[in-house]
Amino acid sequence: MFGRGGDLVPPMITVHCASCGTKLFRYQKIGKGRLLHCRKARISGDHTVRREEDDGAGTVVGVYCPRCGRNVGVVEAQGINMHGGTFTVTGSALKK
Ligand SMILES: [Zn+2]
């Protein structure tokens, strides 16, 4: 599916904490647009910390920066639901 010809290889981006710049994980981003949902299968090199918490409606698993402890998202069935504004991304997928 991928790999036959360089242009078809999905670009990897790196997701950093917006507060302290710590690398959180690398992600195989497919398609343009904002990064809001990260699929588990495409995440690699994950450095985030997971912690169970109660959001008022039930127990959820929060995703935190390993250095400063900022809450950057929440675990969902397919992967991670990222909180906008809590992270920055670098990588080739950002090219328009
Ligand atoms: Zn941080």
What secondary-structure arrangement, pairings included, does this model have?
Blueprint: E1 12-17, E2 23-28, E3 37-39, E4 43-44, E5 49-54, E6 59-64, E7 71-76, E8 79-82, E9 87-91
Antiparallel strand pairs: 1-2, 1-9, 2-4, 3-8, 5-6, 6-7, 7-8
The structure holds zinc ion.
Zinc ion binds at residues 17, 19-20, 22, 65, 67-68, 70.
Describe this structure in words.
The protein is mainly β. It has one domain. The protein is built from no helices and nine strands. The protein has strands at residues 12-17, 23-28, 37-39, 43-44, 49-54, 59-64, 71-76, 79-82, 87-91. Strands 3-8-7-6-5 form a five-stranded antiparallel sheet, with no helix packed on it. β6 and β7 form a beta hairpin. The protein is globular and about 45 Å long. The mean pLDDT is 88. The structure holds zinc ion.
Strand content: over 45%
Number of strands: 9
Q: What pattern of helices and strands is seen along the backbone?
A: EEEEEEEEE
Biggest sheet, in brief? 5 strands, antiparallel
Head-to-tail CA distance between termini? 23 Å
Helical amount: under 10%
Identify low-pLDDT runs.
Answer: none
Shape: globular
Which features does this protein show?
four-stranded antiparallel sheet, globular, mainly beta, five-stranded antiparallel sheet, binds zinc ion, 46% strand, 96 residues, single chain
